[in-house]
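agent> Task received from the user: take the single chain below, predict its 3D structure, and emit structure tokens. No templates, no multimer pairing.
agent> Plan: (1) validate residues, (2) run structure prediction, (3) serialize to tokens, (4) report one or two observations.
agent> Step 1 OK, no nonstandard residues flagged.
tool_call: predict_structure(input=
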Amino acid sequence: MNSPSKPSETQIQMPETTKATANDSVTMSGPLVSHSGAAADFLATHGLKTRRKSDPISAFLRLLCIVSSITAIAFMVSAHSSGSVPIYGFNLQVDSKWSFSDSFEYLVGVSAAACAHSLLQLLLSVAKLWKGIPVIPSRNHAWLIFAGDQIFAYAMMSAGSAAAGVTNLNRTGVRHSAFPDFCKPLHRFCDRVAVSIAFAFLGAFMLASSAIFDVIWLSKY
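)
tool_result: status=success, residues=221
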């Protein structure tokens, strides 16, 4: 009578053993899943803190670019001087002004555009820092800012180079000709133009530095 009951007990106990094994596997996998989630949360929090530390540096570069652009414009538009220049033994009265040169006008226009771009980005950065949110919220936004910084950096470099060529011609004159060094009698004009060009190149450097920060952001996040 007892022998027939043993197989039935064995058949009843086998599902319980299988069920316990399944439960054990679930219990073992639970800590692994929670550990992976904690690591992801840590990496996200660390990345957010790193971004918030670099955001004030980016805003400071924007401010330096604005100051450089405004200074370049101020010195250029105030460049005006009069004097007499000896040509072929005759003293001719000359009047120099920044608006007489297309290169100088180009520098003023590009500096104004770069200043407007940097001012807009600075206002947005300050507003986001005040609210405690990242200055660059997404990769698409980072690519857009990077493109703008690159365009205005190259434009500032080209404007400074064009203006520097004209200024160098005014200082050295034309070889094998009677055209003299115009900067001797018009030194105030040439000095102001030189300072304006220097700040234009400084603004281009600030924009290039901002572009480098954009590349670093894109490479990390």
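agent> Step 4: summary for the user.
The CA atoms of residues 6 and 12 lie 10 Å apart.
agent> Done.
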